[in-house]
Predict the 3D structure of the following.
Amino acid sequence: MSSEVPSVLILGHSFVKRLKRDLRSHFDPRADGNFKLGGTASVHLHGVGGRTVAKLRSFDLHVVERIAPDVVILEIGTNDLVDLSPEVVGSEIENLVRLLLGHYKVRIVCVCHVIPRGHSYDHAASFAGRVEILQHYLDVVLSVIPNVFCWVHRAFSHPGKDFYLPDGVHVNPAGQYHLYRSYRGAIFRALRLL
């Protein structure tokens, strides 16, 4: 690695897009666009609403190529679980991780576990069951790949918490700050592995 600071790319669906927007608007005085890393790393966010793993592979990997990040943090899988089985989603995520490490030469990949939906979401319980299966699947298949780790957004482990907008899917400002803090923790863990 050169003398430049390592770069981190948080890549995924609408959660990433919304956090990027909210960081630009200074939604919380405790949050910082570069995650208060004090110049030790450069953080980029790229998210598109409705992104599935397949769409990310088709339309967003140019961002990985352009930035050439040392670390990629993936926030993906949520939209896939609506139509696909957890095992299929997990297999697609595993393939994406291997592509990032192999073809794009990313040094560390963090795969965030899917955030459960809030209790106001119509099918929150069944979605939570699919999330749990996906988490177990990813923990198993990714544990054997060097330089990859799974990350749990612990603040969202209990979907009854008041972190959601009325849709039960997206997060409110309090939830957004917890998500920001969780990404910050994932970034620190990834940087320690470089």
The radius of gyration is 16 Å. The CA atoms of residues 79 and 126 lie 14 Å apart. Strands lie at 7-12, 42-47, 71-75, 108-112, 148-151. The chain has a mean pLDDT of 95.
